[in-house]
Design a protein that fits this description.
This protein is mostly helical and about 300 residues long. About 75% of the residues lie in helices and about 0% in strands. The termini are close together.
Length: about 300
């Protein structure tokens, strides 16, 4: 348990530093966007390439490929449950898409990947990436579809714009790297060493950016949105319980199960407010969800460490 508190304390320091930098104007929205682009286009793909080649082989991929079903089943079940709750609680129709997206879908890269690495070590990376794949596909299809409906611009689940969003550098790199591993194509050691060095800054930068998001959300008074707490309960309690059930049904155990459950318990996706703003949905509610769940992580992370005995 001491290690869990150390992990959380480390996150608090980095989040606090990001908060302070944002408050001082050194990490404002424009700067954060530029840094985020660098992280998403360079550091995260490099980290994925290195981790896939380091911790996976063709046999492991063929053996553990069933893990990718967990995020699909978990997020779809959580989304369906969120829709039912929204109807039962008479949540305004123009807020339901945002609530459902926050309830069911997690921040699996900026937050989930470093949390899992901190709790379980780098060997947790492949399982975290499996969850990232399914979570990303569901967010940019069903999640965005619901948010578009909130803003009065319904569209299809799959569109050219959706495809462009799905083909993010992180997901493309992950798919290519896994394909190369399956084909048993080796990479030069210099390429892996470069990828390792480029991927190293990704985690601390992600934490700094998350701290900046919290600062802007606090300044905007986002915490005053009651529905954010409903979404937080889904994101950090209901979704991991669903993942617990799904992994049990699939016969998964050990670290694979623990990492997938942890990914399901992560905060709201940071892209949710951006998508909500773009489609005229309730971006303040989405921002509140990010704020509440990021702060909730300070409770959830040590709780998971206690449950899993790490």
């Amino acid at each position: 348990m001491n290690s869990a508190f150390e992990i959380v304390f480390t996150f608090v320091i980095m989040l606090g530093l990001g908060f302070a930098l944002a408050r001082a104007g050194l990490l404002d929205a424009a700067t954060s966007q530029k840094v985020t682009s660098i992280v998403l286009w360079i550091f995260v793909p490099a980290s994925m390439l290195y981790n896939v080649y380091t911790y996976l082989d063709a046999d492991a991929l063929l053996r553990d490929g069933v893990d990718v079903l967990v995020p699909f089943v978990t997020t779809l079940a959580a989304y369906a449950l969120a829709r039912l709750l929204c109807m039962a609680l008479r949540v305004p129709a123009h807020k339901r898409g945002v609530v459902c997206a926050m309830f069911a879908l997690s921040n699996t890269i900026f937050v989930g990947l470093p949390v899992n690495q901190a709790l379980f070590g780098d060997v947790a990376t492949p399982y975290a990436l499996f969850y990232f794949m399914g979570n990303t596909v569901v967010f940019w299809t069903l999640g965005v579809w619901g948010i578009r409906r909130d803003g009065g611009t319904p569209g299809t689940l799959f569109s050219r714009q959706t495809l462009r969003k799905l083909l993010s550098p992180a997901l493309v790199t992950l798919v290519i790297a896994m394909a190369l591993v399956l084909l048993r194509v080796p990479l030069p050691q210099v390429a892996l060493s470069t990828a390792k060095m480029l991927g190293a800054p990704g985690t601390p930068l992600a934490m700094l950016l998350s701290g900046a998001i919290i600062q802007r959300a606090v300044r905007a008074g986002a915490w005053k949105q009651p529905l954010a707490f409903l979404a937080a309960a889904g994101s950090m309690i209901v979704a991991p319980l669903l993942a617990l059930g799904v992994t049990g049904l699939l016969g998964l155990s050990g670290m694979a199960r623990q990492v997938l459950i942890t990914q399901a318990a992560m905060p709201v996706m940071s892209q949710t407010p951006i998508v909500a703003l773009a489609y005229g949905a309730d971006d303040q509610l989405a921002t509140a969800g990010v704020l509440v769940t990021m702060l909730g992580l300070l409770i959830v992370a040590p709780a998971l460490a206690l449950v899993f005995g790490v």
